[in-house]
Amino acid sequence: MRHPYVVLALFLILTVGGGSAIGIATAPGDWYAGLSKAWFNPPSWVFAPAWTILYLLIGIAGWRVWHAGELQASRLWWLQIGLNFLWSPVFFVLHWTGAALLVIMALLATIAGFIAFTWRHDRPAALLFLPYGAWVAYALLLNGAIWWLN
């Protein structure tokens, strides 16, 4: 069996590294700059530090459920990371704001499912996901506003 802290490092590389790579590859450009946005849209500089912190929390939570052998929570974790990594290309590359809205709705539902499941089995993992859920709910509002306004 692998040393648990080696696996933790792998989870963090996946989440922080993968999220950063996708963020760089799908960086908002002129298309995004030209969109009408809601009054509550934050400045662009907020997103990188917010996601870096969230990806650290997501990685730690994923490692916790892996380490505990929680198969159902692990499945939910992998589903949410897949949806998370899918959203940026759908929104920023394909410019499909409506499809991205559906992806982020599924992501938020998966995050809520992860929190609900782990609340009973691994409370710290659930707590690690609370800021992520709040941020994705906010991002859903931002995505919805962009879809509506454009």
Automatic annotation (TrEMBL):
* Pfam families associated with the record: TspO_MBR (PF03073)
Q: Tell me the domain of life.
A: Bacteria
Task: List the GO biological process terms.
Answer: tetrapyrrole metabolic process
| Compartments where located | Membrane
Q: Does the keyword Phosphoprotein apply?
A: no
* Coiled coil region boundaries: none
Q: Membrane spanning segments where?
A: 45-64, 76-94, 100-119, 126-149
Q: What is its main location?
A: membrane
Record keyword Signal present: no
Q: How does it sit in the membrane?
A: Multi-pass membrane protein
One GO term of the cellular component aspect?
Answer: membrane
**Which UniProt keywords are present, listed alphabetically?**
Membrane, Transmembrane, Transmembrane helix
The family database entries (PANTHER family) matched by this protein are listed as:
PERIPHERAL-TYPE BENZODIAZEPINE RECEPTOR, TRANSLOCATOR PROTEIN
The family note in this entry says: Belongs to the TspO/BZRP family.
Q: What is this protein called?
A: Tryptophan-rich sensory protein
